[in-house]
Amino acid sequence: MRKRLLLLVLSMVMLGFGATMVGAEKDHPKPKFQEVELSEKQTKELKTMYEDLVNQRKGIVEKYKEFGVLSEEDATKMEEHLDMFMEKMQEDGFVPKWQEHKKKDSQD
Known about the structure:
The protein has 108 residues and is an all-alpha fold. It has 3 helices and no strands.
């Protein structure tokens, strides 16, 4: 039972990274982002928001570790994943690059 709960919690946290996907069903098309260059002010504003998001998620991971839901190793991996996410967003100028994601289960 505890393993199932842990698996459920980990799944929910990991799926939270994909929560920005609007249309999870096949009938819903993905939003199309325009190729734009954000201004310095826009980039700073988005960077602040993403930093807040990443820090809040890291705080949640820390609480799960503190409560014994996650092991030290799993918590570290999740925090590293969050760091990689932030680096990728910075590289992309804080403009989502969803069209570059490949569907793993696509058999259309």
